[in-house]
Structure formats: structure tokens, C-alpha cells
Amino acid sequence: MNNDYPIPDNELQRLAALKRYNILDTLPDNAFDDATKLVSYICGVPIAHISFIDENRQWFKSEIGIGVSEVPREITFCNYTILDTKIVEINDTHLSERFKNDPNVTGGFNVRFYAGVPITTPDGYNIGTLCAVDHVVKELNENQRNALSIVAKHVMAQLEIGTKNIQLDAQRKIAEKAVLARDSFLANMSHEIRTPLNSIIGFTDLLAQTELDEVQRDYIESVQIAGENLLLIVNDILDLSKIESGNLAIESEPFNLKKTLKHVYNLLKVKAQKEVDFNLFLDAEMPDNVVGDQGRLNQILVNLIGNSLKFTNEGEVTVSVKKLEETEDNYTLKFSVKDTGIGIHEDKLTTIFERFTQGEESTTRTYGGTGLGLNIVKELIELQHGEIHVKSTPNRGSEFFFIISYKKGNPAQPAVKSMSINNLGRLKILLCEDNALNQKLAKSVINNFGFDLDIAQNGEEGIELLSQNKYDLVLMDLQMPVKDGYQTTEYIRNEMNSTIPIIAMTAHSLVGEQERCYKVGMNAYVPKPFKQAVLLKAIKTVMNPNIELTPKRIIDLSFLDEMACGDLEFKKEMINLFIEKIPSQTEQLEEAFRKEDHDAVKMLSHNMKSSLDIFMLEDLSNCAAIIEEEAAAREFTTETLDKMNVLHCGITEVVKILKEL
Amino acid sequence: MRIILAEDNDILRKSLSFFLESKGFTVDQFSDGKDALDAIETNNYDLILTDINMPGKSGMEITQYVRQTINSETPIIILTSSGVEQTELDSFDIGANEFIAKPVSPAVLLVRINKLLKTRF
């Protein structure tokens, strides 16, 4: 055996370059197999391959007529090809001094003809070869040689794409993780801020309803305004995160446009300074009823009009609405907010809708605000397929106008039967809530409504009270010690088999939570800090017997069917095994999670994942994967807790559905 | 053709066995890596199909033992739910012939098994 094969001068760098592509020992790939076939066709040879050469071996990414996946480096002819920059062609090895005694010429692969082109990285390292080999004497023509070089270049391009894709994939994973981290940060922050804010706003409202002297009333009003403003800012930030994650849904409900505009006008009238005329002009042709998102239109108008009123010291602020176009199905409307305020410099007009920009740097100091409002307005309008524009002259004033199309509403919409507090009677309500301030606040509000309230400190206490007394309704905090709101609801629905209406009350306000509440069987959802009117509306809604059921999950059994090869008995056996095992595994998993037993959590979540995959429960399988990952990192986060809860709810639901099959 | 299957998830193991038996293979199934290895030492299998994470012995340990200690070239397919590239590289490094990420498609598994058995015999 010929052991003294040549080593390229740049061998170390060459090996490093090869390593970068992570190509060695990868699975077969059609793109490479096609290239090898092409070489065999072009040159008319029985043996062709694409190979990579590391310290000890030549590894074949793709081969025809060789039949092994690698050979020791010392026996390959390609050792000479990777020294070269162009094609190496040996027409007859028997005439070559270098090769005529080579074991693969005299025996082995019986190489008589060899042509090899180096596979060269963009930075100039020959990491492998593309070869054509035959058992007879041969000579390639110019076209064949060119074709080989071109195919070698394509192979390199293929490799480059492969690594770029891997890099992209890694980057994408990092980016997704960052988004996730930010979302959970926002959820936690919003919770931390909203809980105390809930108490501040609620108690201030209650205090304002007591007898006060003029100075006290003035102070209280200031606290109320400050509290509301703080809430607006927190909501702005949350809205933004929802828009960014694509989780903000635009509703499509019939509403009365004129009433909405008048409501906004009345709401903001108090904010206009004395020297400012605040007007609302409505086009006579403007429709009364349209279908769209009333809440978001409110938000846009409050934001734009609020800005105008803030930046206008004298003159006027005019809100007008005009019908631009009417088709069979749609109205296109132009809303305009025009003022005689401080105006905006021309060079700022293009950036005014960007985040954290205001007209002047001094604006924040003088007028306050987060610099998020106009950005949110623009995003909200664009989500409704509309557009917003601005015209302005410094010291003369500004006009913001936006155009939105609404579907035509049905004017004969029957008025929703309004239910006053009285016809609900004296409801007996159970509140599950651990925070003493929130308890006190809710008690005052509920008593004001004219209902009776019992309080449980946690879910377990709630269940106990519920089994002893008769209640009409449960108000459920989500984060509680001992048993949280989700677990308590599940118990009430699945163990007690009770259909009592349950309203979730939560300071979390991120997307997904609401769905989860409905999924475990709650009937309504009130975000904290709650407004009295919103809570009352929720109570009225759930006390109305026509509650829609949430859609059920559909379980895809096609994977199991494929495994069972049509055997129904076996399929049933597997379903029963799943129903039997997975609930107790879930319990064990939760137990291990509580004990922070990382190893047990890792093992259980891993095992459960395989079971979940068989029933194609992709969402739950992903949860299990994330839990396993966090357990492997030996650190549980709020995300783990969240996934544990989702997994728990999902499995309960799935088992229930499978049992009914 | 006789296959040994080591997988600790009951449902997956039973399903895979059932599937492979329906396709005409004889399957010996184990949920513990150690038991599986004992069986490999005493019997002649045409193919080894193993999960990585298992009680007793891991799929990696089994592969290493088969290649280095028993010095057997029996084809080995490693199944894993790990999405980590290094796991795949390591699997081949210690001598596995195929690496299949979970969830395993039965059809793909069958193709890979047939391919390995054909190249060998």
C-alpha cells in the first residue's frame, strides 16, 4: 500500500473549511445523487462519485459503482486532485509511473481511467472531489471536461446553500426565543403593574363615590386621571406587543357609527381648553350602521383627537366624517381630525408614525406621552386595510385623516334585549381570590350591584364553599396558591360536574390566556383592573342561558391508522393504553415539577412526547418538548409553568374526547 | 427477518412492533436498554432498532457495545426526538447506520429498514 501520499500545504485550513460545511456522515441527498448521475452520463463511465477528504479517509457523499461509504485516505487517487486547481485526468493508469503499481490499478477497483475535479470552497480550499472512473482507457473531450468543472461548481453551490440554511435556521431559532422571552416579560410586567393599578383605580372610584369636600374631590380626581393615564400607557405597550406578534384580532360586529362618534366627542369635550372650539361635523350621507371594530375605531379617534386637543392652545379642533364611496357591500369613509395647534415640521412628517418619535425632542418634556400612540394608530388602521395621512404647517396646525372601508350593517338589526340589574335578582356570588385588597374592592363593587358575595382565599376553599352552598356564579382569579383558577375550574367542571357560570378575572392580558380560560370551561373573561360596567356586562352575559359552547378539538388518528394497518382491535387497544397511561403520567409530571425534580420531569416529558406524537397532538407535543428542554437546562421558568398548564388542560380534553369515541 | 426493537414508550413500541409484524418481520420488543442488550448478545438479529433515551442502557451505549465489544456489523437504526444536530453526528460516529428523527413515519422507517437489509444481503 502506498502510504506516502501528498498532503496539501494548507491542510489544516483545508480541514477547518471542510468541517464548516458539516457534510461528513450526513444522510444521502437527491441533489448530490443527481450530480453524480450527471457525471456518469456525461463521461459515459460506470463509476462516479462526489467525495470529501478529511484527515484519515475519503467519504463518499454520493457514489455510483463503488458500493462503500468511505475508503482510507492513503489509497485514493484524489489526494493528487485536491492539490490541483483544475481537472486531473489520467487516460491510462498502466502508462502512469505514479499509479501503474497502485493496488487499485492492479486489483481492487481496477481503475484504468481517472478524471477528478477538485470541489473548491469560495475561499479557495479543496475540500473534496468530483470524479469519473472507468475500467478501460479513455479520453475526455473539451466539452466533457468543461461539464465536469461546471458540475463541481454546482456541487459547491449546493453545499453553500445547505450551510446557509442551517445558519438561517439557527438564527431563526434565536430570534424566536427572543420574541418568546419578550412576550413572557411583557406578560409578567403587565401583571405586576396591573395588580396594584387595579387597586388604585378601584379604590379611587369607590372613594369618589363617598362624601368629599371640594379640595378632597379635586385631589381624588387628579389621582383618577393619573391612574387612567398610567393604565393607558400599560395598555399601549401591550397593544404594541400584540400587534407585533400578530395576535391582535380585528373584530367584525355591527355598530352605530354616529353614536360611537358622539360618544368619543362627549368623552373628550372636557379635555378641550377654554379658548378652543371643539367641533364634530358629520356628513349627512354618512351611514348610521356599519360592521367593523368599534373598539378600535374608538381607540384611534381618542388617540388622534386627544393629540390635537393636547397640542392646541387656541383656535379650533374639528372632527369630521365624510362618505367617499358606496358600493353594494361597503362604505368607504374618511375621518379627519384638524386643529390649529403647534403643528409639525415638514422634516418630521415622515417619521411621526414611527415608534418613540414625537414632533420635537422637547415634546415629551412639555406634553408627556410615550411616543407610541401614533404608531399604534397607524398599525390599527392598516390592520383594518385602511390608510392614514398627515398634513401640517408649523404654528398653523395639523390635519390627520384616515380612510377605512366598513361592511354595510343591517339597519333592521333587532335591539339586543337589555337586562337591568334588577331582573337578575339578588345573585349569590362566590369570589376565589387571594389578594386581600382585590377581595375588598370586589366586595364593595359587587355589593353596590346589589348582589351577595362570599370569598374563598384559594381554589380549594372555593371548591369547599361551592359544595356546601348554592351559588349563581363564580368569579375566579387565575393566579392563586394551593389550586389556581384553571385547576379549580377543571375540578368544578370535571369532578363536580357543575355547569355554574365562571368568570375569569385576571391581570394577565396576553393573547392565548383568554382561549385557555374558555378551554378549561370558563364562560367569560374580565381583565383587571376591571371596570364596574365591564364586570356587570360579563355577569349579565353569563347569566343569559344562551351560552355558546367552545369548539371541540378534533383528534387526527391517521398516524395510528397507518401503524395499525387497518386493524381496528389494535387501534382500540392503543387508544385505551393512552387513556390509561397519560393522565397518571401527567400527575407524575406535575408532582416532579413541583418538587423541581429536573431529571424526572425530563424523563416523563420525553416519554409523554412520544405518546402525544402518535395521536398527532402537535401543540401538546411541542409543550412537552419545551418542558423537556427546560428540564434539561435544569431551570424552570414561567414559560414551563405555562406549558405545564396547557399540557394538563389539553390532555384532559383529549382523554375526554377519546373516551367518547 | 428478525428485528429487535428497544423503545421505552409503550404505545410507540407496541405500535411499531405491530406495524413491522404486519409487514412480515419478526419483532422482539424491549422497554429497557439493558434487557435489549442481553437479548442482542444471545440472539442473532438482522437489524437493531433503538431509541436513544431509555432506562437501563441508552441507544448510544447499545450501539457502541454492539460495534466495539461484540464487534458485530448488524445494521443499527437510531430513533430519537432530539433535534440536535450533534446527536445525529454522534450516532454515525459510533457506528449507527441510520438516524431517524421522531415522530417516525412508518413508511419511511420501512424504506430505511429494507434498504439496510438489502445492501447487506
TrEMBL record, chain A:
<dbReference type="Pfam" id="PF02518">
    <property type="entry name" value="HATPase_c"/>
</dbReference>
<dbReference type="Pfam" id="PF01627">
    <property type="entry name" value="Hpt"/>
</dbReference>
<keyword id="KW-0547">Nucleotide-binding</keyword>
<dbReference type="Pfam" id="PF00072">
    <property type="entry name" value="Response_reg"/>
</dbReference>
<dbReference type="InterPro" id="IPR005467">
    <property type="entry name" value="His_kinase_dom"/>
</dbReference>
<dbReference type="InterPro" id="IPR008207">
    <property type="entry name" value="Sig_transdc_His_kin_Hpt_dom"/>
</dbReference>
<feature type="domain" description="HPt">
    <location>
        <begin position="567"/>
        <end position="661"/>
    </location>
</feature>
<keyword id="KW-0067">ATP-binding</keyword>
<dbReference type="Pfam" id="PF01590">
    <property type="entry name" value="GAF"/>
</dbReference>
<dbReference type="InterPro" id="IPR003018">
    <property type="entry name" value="GAF"/>
</dbReference>
<feature type="modified residue" description="4-aspartylphosphate">
    <location>
        <position position="477"/>
    </location>
</feature>
<keyword id="KW-0597">Phosphoprotein</keyword>
<feature type="modified residue" description="Phosphohistidine">
    <location>
        <position position="606"/>
    </location>
</feature>
<dbReference type="InterPro" id="IPR003661">
    <property type="entry name" value="HisK_dim/P_dom"/>
</dbReference>
<feature type="domain" description="Histidine kinase">
    <location>
        <begin position="188"/>
        <end position="408"/>
    </location>
</feature>
<keyword id="KW-0902">Two-component regulatory system</keyword>
<dbReference type="GO" id="GO:0005524">
    <property type="term" value="F:ATP binding"/>
</dbReference>
<dbReference type="Pfam" id="PF00512">
    <property type="entry name" value="HisKA"/>
</dbReference>
<feature type="domain" description="Response regulatory">
    <location>
        <begin position="428"/>
        <end position="543"/>
    </location>
</feature>
<dbReference type="InterPro" id="IPR001789">
    <property type="entry name" value="Sig_transdc_resp-reg_receiver"/>
</dbReference>
<dbReference type="InterPro" id="IPR003594">
    <property type="entry name" value="HATPase_dom"/>
</dbReference>
<protein>
    <recommendedName>
        <fullName>histidine kinase</fullName>
        <ecNumber>2.7.13.3</ecNumber>
    </recommendedName>
</protein>
From TrEMBL, chain B:
<dbReference type="InterPro" id="IPR039420">
    <property type="entry name" value="WalR-like"/>
</dbReference>
<keyword id="KW-0238">DNA-binding</keyword>
<feature type="modified residue" description="4-aspartylphosphate">
    <location>
        <position position="51"/>
    </location>
</feature>
<protein>
    <submittedName>
        <fullName>Response regulator transcription factor</fullName>
    </submittedName>
</protein>
<keyword id="KW-0805">Transcription regulation</keyword>
<keyword id="KW-0902">Two-component regulatory system</keyword>
<dbReference type="InterPro" id="IPR011006">
    <property type="entry name" value="CheY-like_superfamily"/>
</dbReference>
<feature type="domain" description="Response regulatory">
    <location>
        <begin position="2"/>
        <end position="117"/>
    </location>
</feature>
<dbReference type="Pfam" id="PF00072">
    <property type="entry name" value="Response_reg"/>
</dbReference>
<dbReference type="InterPro" id="IPR001789">
    <property type="entry name" value="Sig_transdc_resp-reg_receiver"/>
</dbReference>
<keyword id="KW-0804">Transcription</keyword>
<keyword id="KW-0597">Phosphoprotein</keyword>
